[in-house]
C-alpha cells in the first residue's frame, strides 16, 4: 500500500495502517539510531517512542508528504531526548554522590574529633611522668633513648612508665579499638599539627 494512502488512513485512526507503517520502517529506524548510540536496545526503545509519538500526533500529519522523513525526524529527536535524560540522571547522581561524600567526610571528622577529645582526657588523667613520656614518644615521635636523655632518666624507667601508661589507656579505651591500635603502634599517634594541638602539648 502506498505511504500516502497509509498516512491518510492513519489520520483517521486506522490501526492497520499504523501497523503497516511500523512493519515497514521499524528496522530501518532502529538501524538509523544505532549509528548514533551503537546500542540496539537503546535504539529500539527510541524507535518505539517515535512510533508512539506518530500515533499520538497522527492528526497533524500531512497527507501529501511521505511519512519517511517525519519518522526519521521523530526518531532522531527522541534519541536526543534520551541523551538529555541520561545526562540529567548522571548529573543528579553526581550531585547525590557529592552530597553523600560531603556528609560522610563531615561525619568522619566529627568522629575523629570525639576520638581526639577522648584521647586527650585519657592522657590528662595519667600521672605527670607517664603523661610526659607518652607525649614525647607517641606525639613527638621520640625514641626511648632520646626521652631518657631529655628527662635525665634511664631507658628502663621510660619503658616502665610506658607500660603503666599503656595499661591505663588500654583500660580506658577498651571499646575504641582504633585509638588503642594507634597507641600500641610504635609510630607517632598523629603527624597532623592541628590534631596535635588538640592534645594541649
From TrEMBL:
Gene Ontology process terms (BP): DNA-templated transcription initiation
Task: Quote the SUPFAM superfamilies the UniProt record gives.
Answer: Sigma2 domain of RNA polymerase sigma factors, Sigma3 and sigma4 domains of RNA polymerase sigma factors
Classify the source by domain of life: Bacteria
What molecular function does GO assign, one term? DNA binding
Q: Which residues form the RNA polymerase sigma-70 region domain?
A: 21-88
Q: Which Gene3D superfamilies did the record assign?
A: 1.10.1740.10, Winged helix-like DNA-binding domain superfamily/Winged helix DNA-binding domain
In what residue span(s) does the RNA polymerase sigma factor 70 region 4 type domain sit?
118-163
Identify the keywords attached in UniProt to this record, alphabetized: Sigma factor, Transcription, Transcription regulation
InterPro entries per UniProt: RNA_pol_sigma-70-like, RNA_pol_sigma-70_dom, RNA_pol_sigma70_bacteroid, RNA_pol_sigma70_r2, RNA_pol_sigma70_r4_t2, RNA_pol_sigma_r2, RNA_pol_sigma_r3/r4-like, WH-like_DNA-bd_sf
Q: What PANTHER family does the annotation carry?
A: RNA POLYMERASE ECF-TYPE SIGMA FACTO (PTHR43133), RNA POLYMERASE SIGMA-70 FACTOR ECF SUBFAMILY (PTHR43133:SF46)
| Family of this protein | Belongs to the sigma-70 factor family. ECF subfamily.
- What is the recorded name of this protein? RNA polymerase sigma-70 factor
Source species = Flavivirga rizhaonensis
